[in-house]
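Quick one, tokens below. Sequence please?
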């Protein structure tokens, strides 16, 4: 280990350009009695805020005579390594959670700005709609498959859609808002709807009570006239039926008032209602059955090919024979 040769109070301060002019608090007292320098690699805004020149060629000699504080963005630079080897203190601050989101915002801005990606520059909220839906379903697949790597990737793709829409919204001439406004709105909503966590609201002992309280507060905030206001009508029909049944049940609407009849739509609604009122999720349950059926088809096709037959040429009797003894693992994707 190198013997200390720099003056007391000398330090190397690691800063992250993504945090703008933020300086680790532990470095502030040292600045009062030290000569301050900033590595050329720092962002111009950070260097300007510090008002510090680049380190001189005789930096180590200066540090031996008087306290020197060097601001760097990378501890691997030559001047930082030399000061550290001579005994200078290293000061940094742990990166806050979410720091990488700043890079994501910066990249999105670059892609959307002049000189960026021509395709990205042409998009608007309407053209991006289909991608949001596609990425959401791909995320649902990753969750169902218990695929951690795919889950991480698909979460990023959904995040991209949020960043993209917020960047497009920032360019609106009549009513602009940006990603910070989106995040601020989310924070405000989360805090206001959890008074038991962030204020002096009464404690809630279970998830169901919390959910009911959330809906009650949402109703008050948005001053909705109907219990079905705010239900996403574009969601899949089975999920939509389940959501409406949930709202109706919480409002005290009796089961006999729900749609009933002999038409296919009414029959499907009734099945979805029974499943939801029983505590299930009819959308997930139907999806599980559909996926299990798809697996049975694939298994039958494999059997056909193994026996020298092409699935496209099979008749009903052959399909029946190939699929008759195949299990139907309905819960293949619905098990926790």
């Amino acid at each position: 280990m190198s013997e200390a040769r720099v003056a007391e109070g000398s330090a190397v301060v690691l800063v992250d350009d993504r945090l703008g002019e933020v300086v680790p608090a532990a470095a502030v007292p040292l600045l009062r009695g030290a000569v301050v320098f900033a590595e050329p690699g720092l962002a111009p805004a950070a260097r300007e805020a510090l008002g510090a020149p680049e380190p001189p060629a005789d930096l180590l000699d200066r540090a031996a005579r008087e306290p020197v504080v060097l601001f760097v963005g990378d501890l691997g630079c030559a001047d930082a390594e030399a000061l550290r080897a001579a005994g200078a203190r290293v000061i940094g601050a742990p990166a806050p959670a979410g720091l990488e989101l700043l890079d994501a915002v910066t990249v999105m801005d670059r892609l959307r700005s002049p000189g960026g990606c021509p395709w990205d520059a042409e998009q608007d909220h309407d053209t991006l709609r289909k991608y949001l839906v596609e990425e959401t379903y791909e995320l649902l697949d990753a969750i169902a498959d218990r695929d951690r790597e795919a889950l991480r990737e698909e979460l990023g793709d959904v995040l991209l859609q949020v960043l993209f829409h917020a960047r497009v919204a920032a360019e609106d001439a009549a009513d602009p808002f940006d990603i910070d406004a989106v995040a601020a709105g989310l924070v405000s909503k989360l805090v206001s709807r959890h008074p038991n966590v962030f204020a002096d609201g009464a404690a809630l002992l279970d998830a169901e009570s919390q959910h009911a309280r959330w809906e009650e507060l949402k109703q008050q905030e948005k001053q909705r006239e109907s219990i079905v206001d705010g239900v996403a009508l574009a969601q899949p029909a089975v999920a939509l039926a389940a959501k409406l049944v949930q709202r109706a049940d919480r409002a005290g609407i009796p089961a006999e008032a729900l749609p009933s009849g002999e038409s296919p739509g009414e029959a499907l609604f009734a099945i979805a209602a029974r499943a939801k009122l029983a505590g299930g999720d009819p959308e997930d349950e139907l999806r599980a059955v559909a996926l299990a059926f798809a697996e049975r088809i694939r298994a039958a096709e494999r059997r056909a090919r193994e026996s020298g037959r092409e699935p496209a040429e099979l008749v009903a009797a052959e399909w029946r024979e190939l699929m008759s003894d195949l299990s139907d693992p309905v819960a293949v994707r619905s098990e926790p």
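The chain is about 55% helix and 5% strand. The longest helix spans residues 282-306.
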